[in-house]
Amino acid sequence: MPIALSIVVPVKDEAGNAGPLAREIMAAVGGDNTEIIFVDDASTDRTAEDLLALKGEIAHLRIIRHGRNAGQSRAIRTGVMAAQGAIIATLDGDGQNDPADLPRLIAMLESDGATGMVSGVRVKRQDSAARKWASRLANAYRQRMLKDTAADSGCGIKAFRREAFLALPYFDHQHRFMTTLMLREGYAVRFLPVNHRPRLHGQSKYGNLQRMLVGVADIRGVRWLQRRYGADPRPKEL
Fold it and tell me: Is 16 exposed, middle or buried (0-12, 13-18, 19+ CB in 10 A)?
């Protein structure tokens, strides 16, 4: 059966999380027309080995490994470029996104042909108070600058059309601006409340200060992209 749905999961040093997450994804959306792609961004632990051990258990499990660390946006792009499905869903590899939310995201995307992406909005976030405070501050600044209605730009669980993603300009940290970029290309974006779970193993790869400093520069760059783009010409072949 041809692959219709591709699940892309970027991972970096997620031994202990990646294997159980792969099984959860399989239980939530696995099937003959679904592939699950983990992109290992040059992990230094047993992440790749843990996933390889599941190849015989999970149908259509693919593991792609970067030769050097390239970041989350590049890992997502690697997975999308390798994907066979017309519909892509992504979620973070730390296990905090709940795969049980995937069917609802995908169903909402497929219900409307004008929608390019459905993005999760985390409720009852299982993060530290400092991290939640930093996220609220960043989202407030982002909304003021970009006006893209994204209330939770850091949520990693999304469903989108592969063709829509490939129309977006690529840059590091692109994954945090997919709502803005989808709107820029003329696609509708919808949002859905999703579950959020505590991290069970390992630690976050980002600090609050690092996120804020990089985010300010990125927001200014994306704002420049918004201003340098005319109206969608809506081309039609005659």
Answer: middle
The rounded distance, in Å, linking the Cα atoms of 228 and 223 is 9
pTM confidence score: 0.88
Six-digit token string for 183:
């709107």
How far, in Å, are 86, 120, 183, 185, 218 from residue 215 at the CA level?
Answer: 30, 20, 19, 22, 5
Residue pointed to by tokens 């989808």: 182
What do you get for the CA distance between the two ends of the chain, in Å? 33
pLDDT tens by residue, 140-158: 777 778 878 787 888 999 9
Cα–Cα dist 48/212, whole Å: 30
Can you list the alpha helix ranges (DSSP code H) found in 10-64?
18-29, 47-52
Note whether 147 and 72 are within 8 A (CB): no
Q: Which CATH architecture has domain 5-227?
A: Alpha-Beta Complex (3.90)
Where do the structural domains in the chain lie, given as residue ranges?
5-227
